[in-house]
Write a structure and sequence with these properties.
alpha/beta; nine-stranded mixed beta sheet; six-stranded mixed beta sheet; 20 strands
Length: 447
């Protein structure tokens, strides 16, 4: 992770004030990864679970960093070192102080599924009328969000921040740094159970966003999610959903080609999408944007021109084969939703699912992987190809009803796909980030 500093002089002064230590050469950027260091950067040495940034000080120096932030002094003293007790906490303190210089409203977004697509869509919607600051890529953690905040400038008039969590307290910490006025929780579902332990813990963690909102703020409530509905907040509530009692009440339509559209408070919104999940994300974005003064015309235009980020439900035509690339990540709820999308798209050939392990599900992993196989069997998926240790259970649960195979090797998976895929087929790739199924897509469909 790395950023360019928008005001190096002011940020250097803040670092010196917070640490009581001088930085002789002005840092032009901040990097947390020695491989990404650019000349003039401050390199922050983070001690992680598997990697210690202090082991890469020489690499950072070779890449041109002008100073380092460390917990222990390197004997060489070169480049100059700022010694702090905890670089992560110092980065957060710096970001919080920097954010306090700006009075712009901040929209915080979290949830188990859909938060990145919703954030990206909202950035596109608001960019027509605001100078929008927002989360880039995966800069949504205790490391990434402080860097995102440090990119704020006086020119920005709105900030849209995605917030991720791996444990209780993470969302509350990020809200403490950013001070959001508006909050959106897309949904609450099973994910990261290895860290959280239960769906109740996940709900409490996501709920920290609503709890952090000020009394004059607004919580945008997904009325279709019982757990989101039940969360406490001192802020006002605006609801959205598919029944008449919502502030933003929608009807979902699907045409003969399988494309979805919405009618929201009487306004017809074309989506040009086969994904019901995107329809829900669009409805959430509508509630936030229309409430904040965006016109229906601007909203419609942004939705129609929106393109999802790589690996997040991208649909492409690859020489007659429909590719659904949803390989960026997976949990149980998002996998079932992706299967629903696979079934929705009109097809002349077969429906094929390439499924990689859903990681970090703890003691629920075996049951949930089997349930995915059972769902594939029930829906009559034409071909199920599973890759990974856990997805072996998925193939076992499905193979008595459908053509389901389990593979231990990516190369074998690539070979089978090249043999099996034919014009008219639709193939979905779904798996957790650690399974890196995008590498299979590249080999199968690459040049």
């Amino acid at each position: 992770m790395r950023i360019d500093l928008p005001d190096p002089e002011r940020i250097r002064s803040m670092i010196e004030e917070l640490t009581g230590q001088k930085i002789e050469i002005l840092p032009r950027g901040i990097s947390l990864d020695s491989r990404e260091v650019k000349p003039g950067d401050l390199f922050v040495a983070i001690v992680g679970k598997r990697v210690d940034g202090h082991d890469f000080l020489d690499d950072a120096k070779e890449h041109g960093c002008v100073a380092t932030m460390v917990t222990t002094l390197n004997e060489s003293g070169d480049p100059p070192q700022i010694i702090v007790e905890n670089p992560v906490e110092m980065l957060g303190t710096l970001a919080k102080q920097w954010r306090s210089n700006f009075s712009l409203p901040i929209i915080g977004i979290t949830g188990t599924n859909g938060k990145t697509t919703t954030k990206d869509l909202m950035i596109q919607i608001f960019s027509a009328t605001y100078h929008v600051h927002g989360t880039r890529g995966n800069y949504n953690t205790e490391l990434g969000l402080p860097l995102t905040l440090l990119e704020l400038t006086s020119h920005h008039t709105l900030s849209i921040l995605e917030m991720g969590a791996n444990q209780r307290g993470d969302i509350g910490y990020l809200c403490g740094l950013s001070q959001p006025r508006y909050g959106l929780i897309t949904n609450i579902a099973l994910a990261h159970l290895q860290d959280f332990g239960s769906i109740e813990d996940i709900s409490r963690s996501k709920g920290e966003l609503f709890e952090s909102l000020p009394p004059d703020g607004i919580a945008f409530v997904n009325a279709e999610d019982e757990r989101v509905r039940s969360l406490h907040t001192e802020a006002s509530k605006i609801s959205y959903g598919f029944h008449p009692g919502c502030d933003f009440s929608a009807e979902l339509h699907q045409d003969g080609e399988g494309l979805f559209s919405l009618t929201i408070n009487g306004e017809h919104i074309s989506l040009n999408s086969y994904s019901k999940t995107f329809a829900v994300n669009a409805l959430a974005s509508c509630a936030v944007s229309i409430t904040n003064g965006v016109s229906w015309e601007s909203f419609q235009e942004a939705v129609l021109t929106f393109t999802p980020s790589s690996g997040r439900c991208e649909i492409k035509n690859m020489d007659g084969i429909t590719l659904i690339d949803d390989s960026y990540n997976a949990n149980f709820a998002s996998t079932l939703t992706a299967i629903e999308l696979l079934l929705t798209i009109p097809v002349k050939g077969r429906r094929i699912l390439v499924f990689g392990d859903m990681l970090e599900l703890g003691k629920e992993s075996e049951s949930l992987h089997r349930q995915v196989g059972q769902r594939c069997a029930k829906e009559g998926i034409d071909l199920l190809l599973c890759y990974g240790d856990e997805s072996r259970l998925t193939a076992e649960a499905a193979k008595s009803a459908i053509n389901a195979r389990h593979l231990h090797d990516k190369h074998d998976l690539v070979v089978i796909l090249k043999e099996e895929l034919d014009r008219g087929d639709v193939v979905l790739f779904k798996g957790s980030r650690g399974m890196a199924l995008e590498t299979v897509i590249d080999e199968v469909f690459g040049p």
